[in-house]
Amino acid sequence: MRGQRPQDLVFTLFGEYLLERSDSVWVGSLIALLEPFGLTEGGVRTVLSRMAKKGWLASERSGRSSFYALTERGRSLLEEGQARIYDPSWDRDWDGAWFLLAYSIPQDARSARDRLRDRLAWLGFGSIGNGLWISSRDVQADVRDLSVQLGLGNHLLCFQASPVGTLTNHELVDRCWDLGALHRSYRDFAQRWTEAAREMDDSRAPDHNDARAFALRFELIHEFRRFSLEDPFLPRALLPDPWAGDAASAVFRDLHDRLVGPADRWVSAILRDAPDRTDREATAS
């Protein structure tokens, strides 16, 4: 996993292993948990500090020790991502209606426009072009929230629409999303991790040790979570048949469930080595 963005690794760690924790985590524990993935102590400290400045994490000091916890903003983002990962919405009901979003943002607000585009893609919108985006979900509440969060006032307009003339829904989908590439990515994921599970079963060791289970589960979730950023989660009526996302999800869930116990034991062991509150001021961070 070397070469991955440090911030993404930290998000994976907090989302998969630390999301349910209400108390802050000692920086020494975070360094130990991220070291197997190529992050140095200095690299961990740097990325944690940057994420705190961006509002994703909150930092706390006690004596010479540093601790980090998710902010409400960071927790909300990860909870939304976890819901997509463990409960994809391909099977939701769809009444055939599209929601069309139009925006016109002044040139001097380019940064707001870029943030808007990133957020629209995260919400599963597809771009038609020229400031027009579509979604198969009812996005009225999302549009209101975006307008407030980005300070865009009346620059966003949302309509309910449907194709007319000879344009079909599937042709519209093809214009806005590359489902073929996404299907192949899901298929490749399923094939590679099926092989990994087979190798684990064929291993002479009756079980992977806890540290190896932690690393393998981390790699599994880190790779699978990218689909939550790429998949618009269209209703099944608009997806190819067969849809490789089903096979990828099945492989992910099976291997993930097998690794949960030993991986969690390893994380708990690392966290137990943190200084307790009575020792914090006397312990170097």
What can you tell me about this protein's structure?
By secondary structure, the chain is an alpha+beta fold. The chain has three domains: 6-76 and 273-282, Winged helix-like DNA-binding domain superfamily/Winged helix DNA-binding domain (Arc Repressor Mutant, subunit A, Orthogonal Bundle), CATH 1.10.10.10; 98-161, Alpha-Beta Plaits, CATH 3.30.70; 178-266, no CATH class. It is 53% helix and 12% strand. It contains eleven helices and seven strands. Strands 5-6-4-7 form a four-stranded antiparallel sheet, with helices on both faces. The protein is flat and about 65 Å long. The model is unreliable at 280-285 (pLDDT under 50).
- The secondary-structure class comes to alpha+beta
Described by the principal axes of the CA atoms, the overall outline is flat
| Helix percent band | 40-55%
Contiguous helical run count: 11
Task: Give me some keywords for this one.
285 residues, alpha+beta, Arc Repressor Mutant, subunit A, Alpha-Beta Plaits, 3 domains, four-stranded antiparallel β-sheet, flat
What's the SSE blueprint?
Layout: H1 6-18, E1 25-26, H2 27-34, H3 41-53, E2 57-62, E3 65-70, H4 72-86, E4 98-103, H5 110-122, E5 126-129, E6 132-135, H6 140-149, E7 156-161, H7 169-176, H8 179-202, H9 210-224, H10 227-230, H11 244-272
Antiparallel strand pairs: 1-3, 2-3, 4-6, 4-7, 5-6
